[in-house]
Amino acid sequence: MRKISLLCLLTLLMTALLALSGSLALAQDELSGTIVISFASQDTQTWEALCAEYMELHPNVNCVVQLRPAEAYQDFVRAQFAAGTPEFSLVNGNFVADLVNAKSFLDLNLYMDQDNPYSGQAWRDDFDPIALANMRDPLTGELYLLNTETVQVLWFYNKQAFEQAGILSEAEAIAATERNQPTWDQFLGWCDALSSAGFTPVAIEGDFRSFWEQRVGWLARMYADQFTRDEAELVRCQPGDYCFREGVDDQWAYDPTDPGNDDNTRVTFNPVRKMIAFRDGLQSVNGEAWRQMYENFKQFGDRCTPEGWIGTSDAYPLFLTGKAAIRLDGAWLLSTFEKDIRNLAEGTYNYASAEEGAPTPTPSANDLAATVFELGSFNNPTMEGGEVDAAARTIEVNIGFWSIPAKDQAQNDLEVDFLMYVTSPQGAGVYLENKLDPNNPQGGINGPLGLRNVELPPEIAERFAGLRLIGNTEKDTAGTYRSRGIADYQPSVREWVDLAQRYFLGELTIDEFLDGYQASLENNFEGILEHQNLTPEDLEDPSRKPQNF
């Protein structure tokens, strides 16, 4: 009888588990509604493939791909919020930092403890824990921007061009060192040698987009870091501050030799103290440190860039065709380089300046002759001088910046379910298959995925494995907040771009540029505060949590 009772008990338990499993499957199958993907991207193949697979699992869901060009993307996002509840489900929230700060997007951390039905574990366990920690607000744990790929910004070069210029052996000797990092003066010397050998040294753009969000903007942010690390003590959270973390901030000590010394897991910076420091002149943009940095930048503009580079929107073909020897880019180039050359030669290259849906411009004879060459790479050349605090770091971070607008519960639950699918091994497999498809003209990945149980193809993984990590600047640091306007407040960004372009063109002296930039930030200070949800009253007491936070 005892055995029979145990058998009955096991049978009942199995029946209950099957019923529960069936209920969960039914709940998934009953998902319904519309998902609209509106990233700043042109990779329709990948997202249409993901939508198709998802709709196969959920026949009552309509998944629509409506990708947008990066140009005017933030205007597109803002317009939908201004009109009411946005139609889109997934956008790149990093374009509208003020809307993120205003909590217009869904806090994805609320879902991290829920089971992912596509992986069979808590959603948080699908992510690399370090990547997940870096996505969160260090104080609140809120998560508004989901990042799935890692990226490193570095400089790629044409080994054949370097050999012709007589500098390949020097570059390869540096590549054999731990950091693969020349000095700034060495780098400028390479530019001179390449010019003498008949090459344009560096293929770089000089339009507004490049200055704000791409290569020139990267340089402004990455190198401001070299000169402002020592400001950490000035603006970090102090005992008694609302942001001070016991066990973290009380254990921290400034160490510029440690590339991770100011990670948000080790120290917290107080945004109120930053605004007070700028208001009171303790942090500025016209002191000796900024002078040294921009004098170096002017040397770069004069000795390394293409002729007439200010205002140009796409210099990449110069590199692909071997006319320019160096390209500042992300590690994603390692997954797209051969395809980009093929597309250029075949006339299917998608020029950055082309409007959405416009035909590709007819390639020149030189473009048609483009052939693959051997790539080398080096990390950010490190500036030297009395105002420099530490060796140069780079943008070395998880990216993606996927955000969901805050809507009603049912709609947001559906949109999160789609993200759970995409970040599961099943969905990530579809993602990688299409991203790495050599016939996908807009494919390619930025770097290894910050997801568990997802592996890259061996040949791609090997390319990324050869990169040297030197430290990340794309985070909340002590002073880089003022490197190109403040906090992406557009009036301050636009004025900095105008001033910087005029400086590079030789229309402004270094003093006129720096003093003009300082005056611009001071004149925009009230708007900058409001943009960050701060008020003048908040600045009266930096220990108090701002009233709109």
Describe this structure in words.
The structure is a single chain. Helix 2 runs antiparallel to helix 18, helix 8 (184-196) packs parallel to helix 13 and helix 20 runs antiparallel to helix 21. It is globular, with a radius of gyration of 25 Å. It starts with a helix and ends in an 18-residue tail after the last helix. Helix 2 (44-57) links the parallel strand 1 (33-37) and strand 2 (61-65). The protein has 22 helices and 11 strands. Strands 6, 7, 8, 9 and 10 form a 5-stranded mixed β-sheet that branches. Strands 1-2 form a two-stranded parallel sheet. Strands 3-11 form a two-stranded antiparallel ribbon. It has 2 domains: 34-105 and 107-143 and 401-445, 3-Layer(aba) Sandwich (D-Maltodextrin-Binding Protein, domain 2); 151-393 and 470-540, Periplasmic binding protein-like II (D-Maltodextrin-Binding Protein, domain 2). The chain has helices spanning 2-29, 44-57, 73-82, 97-101, 129-135, 159-164, 168-175, 184-196, 208-212, 215-228, 232-235, 271-279, 288-303, 316-320, 333-346, 365-368, 409-422, 425-435, 458-465, 490-504, 510-523, 525-531, and strands spanning 33-37, 61-65, 91-92, 115-116, 121-122, 149-158, 200-202, 324-330, 375-378, 396-399, 402-403. Mean pLDDT is 91; it is low at 1-27 and 353-360. The chain is α+β, with helices and mostly antiparallel strands and 549 residues long.
Mind sketching the topology for me?
Elements (H helix, E strand, L loop, with lengths): L1 H28 L3 E5 L6 H14 L3 E5 L7 H10 L8 E2 L4 H5 L13 E2 L4 E2 L6 H7 L13 E10 H6 L3 H8 L8 H13 L3 E3 L5 H5 L2 H14 L3 H4 L35 H9 L8 H16 L12 H5 L3 E7 L2 H14 L18 H4 L6 E4 L17 E4 L2 E2 L5 H14 L2 H11 L22 H8 L24 H15 L5 H14 L1 H7 L18
Parallel strand pairs: 1-2, 7-8
Antiparallel strand pairs: 3-11, 4-5, 6-8, 6-9, 6-10
Helix pairs in contact: 2-18, 8-13, 20-21
